[in-house]
Amino acid sequence: MTLFSLARKNIKGNFNNYFVYFATLVFSTVIYYTFTSLQYSEKIQESIELSDTMSFMFGVSSIILILFVAIFILYSNSFFTRKRKKEVGLYAILGLRKKTIAKMLFYENLIMGIIAIVIGIILGTLLSKLFAMILIKLMGSIAEVDFGISILAITQTVIVFMVIILFTSVQGYRLIYRFTLIELFYDEKKGEQIPKVSLISAVIGVILLVVSYWLILKPFPDEFTTEYLMKNYGIAFVALVIGTHLFFRSVTVYLLRLSQKNKSRYYRGTRIIEISRLLFRIRGNARTFTVIALLSSATICFLGATYSGYYSNEKRAEEVVPFSYSHLSKGPEFDSQVESIIKADHRHPIKAQLDIPVIQVKGILSFQLDYDINPVQLISESTFNKAANALNKDETVSLSRNQAAVIQPRFTEYTKSVFKGENITIQLPQGSSELPFVHMVESNVLPFDYPDFFLVVSNEMFAEIAKKEAPLTYKVYEVENEVTAQATSKKVNKLVGNDFQVSSSFYTEYKQGKEGNAITLFIFGFLGLVFLAASGSIIYFKQLTEANEAKGHYEILRKIGVNKKDIRKSIKRQSLFVFGLPLTVGILHSCVTLYFTSNFISNLIGINLIFPILTAIVFFVIIYAVYYVLTVNTYNRIVNK
Predict the structure, then answer these.
(1) Where are the beta strands (DSSP E) in 158-300?
(2) Could you tell me if residue 274 is left (phi over 0), alpha (psi between -120 and 50 degrees) or otherwise beta?
(3) Helices 564-605 and 610-639 meet at what angle, rounded to 10?
(4) Do the beta carbons of residue 550 and residue 277 sit within 8 Å?
(5) Is the pLDDT confidence value at 286 over 70?
(6) 602: three-class secondary structure by DSSP
(7) Which of 43, 164, 66 is nearest to 112 (CA)?
(8) What is the pTM of this model?
(9) 484, 273 in Cβ contact below 8 A?
(10) Dihedral pair phi/psi, residue 314, rounded to 5°
(11) Residue 493 CB-half CA count within 13 A
(12) Percent of the chain topping pLDDT 70
């Protein structure tokens, strides 16, 4: 029998242990192949407006995916090599040299990798159309995606994963030389020392977590700088990481040791073995739990924030581009061309059509504001009220001669109190005028164009200033069902050009935002799936190792009268602790972070983000629940035969 055939036989014999690792490797291949096939899909790129952005984002995510999968495969390969120490020791006793054994393990990993790549590419090819349709649906496009095979995607996937698998195979080959024969046989029997209780370390861990939460949840000051953000949240991040590790390493140990002192509960049923096994293993698992909790938190935050952006895209587009179409007047002939294009679209009839005269002047505030206000843009009271009414806004203003109302600059958190009791001095070619602020409104009427500082002044004041400074006239149109006005928007954009720092049409801004958020959501969604599969598999592997080591303990329990049903309950409680603890900590971390993010984004775009955040958390819990059930069943099958 050759080493190659022996390796193949070993894979068949140990496939139950390899299955989750193998399935995760296949899944990673499918996801990577999907990324590359979408990246090279000409039809998808032709159907969207952000094809360059899409290629860049998929390229970056592919690199992140490669790094993550490589680390996971390396860990998994090392895990299986260490798990089979006894088997390797038997080969050594039978006379096989370490070089021969290492070659056999090298062949095993290589065969597994090649099979996983082939299956992953086949499944990826079959599912690529489904993934493409999901992406197209998220982006709101109507492109028809045909079934196809991307040679470039296949070639890139094979090269990337073969490099990863060859590297991990070489690492497994070298790993055999690190162990002596005694270590191969008795390493699993060494066990871990009972961890010492460190009350000081536990208290420090709790304090660091409380401090990090307090820093994250602390309201923004009225004036905050980049230095403040880096300092405040930099300290919060460091405290969160160290506090999380100390929580698993010390706080959890302290609580488990405390539960041992409750004798009536500790000696009830199988709790003595549950708590003892958790206590002996918690220090060894502390680092893994810390990484999983922090990565879970980061993944939930990214998914929640990304889904929030997708969920709130239409609201954001309305804020940035209030009217369906807006353009600067460039003479009767040009204006008529634009108007005829919009009127020719009978599927989107005009609901409102206005002229918005705007005077640009220089202004000096009576107080310091961390925002560039010049040029200040003036709109008359009557024009603002007409525009607000056309947009179905409830806000209107009523001003006396020298009063002014400021329109809240977009993407800021300025409140009425900032401007209350203050004034602005308008500088004109012939003199200046001082205008006190009496009101702040939130309804913008023109597309965003930094500096986004608009003032509403009385009709009398506007007419007086217009005599000294000629106003610019903007033409605005509001049409029905503006979210589907693709063809007309393209024609208007081509004719108008760049009047603002954003698009002149609502549809273009809406569509680009939806495409960008959809691509980001798609990428983070599948990267999150890969992380979930990898982290769930790591916990699964650890539990399988402990199950094989604990078979003797459970056999003793059965001999002294503990039935199989009680043993299964014990396994459920242990697995729930192992899966639930890092997930719960990760969810708590993400809730704190997302609470801050939700409040911050909600203030900027005025939308409640609780639903998308809860969706991300529920999605995470469901995936972990699947791994939990799989682990309980496998663990029970090993120890409770």
Answers:
(1) none
(2) alpha
(3) 160
(4) yes
(5) yes
(6) helix
(7) 164
(8) 0.73
(9) no
(10) -65, -40
(11) 16
(12) 78
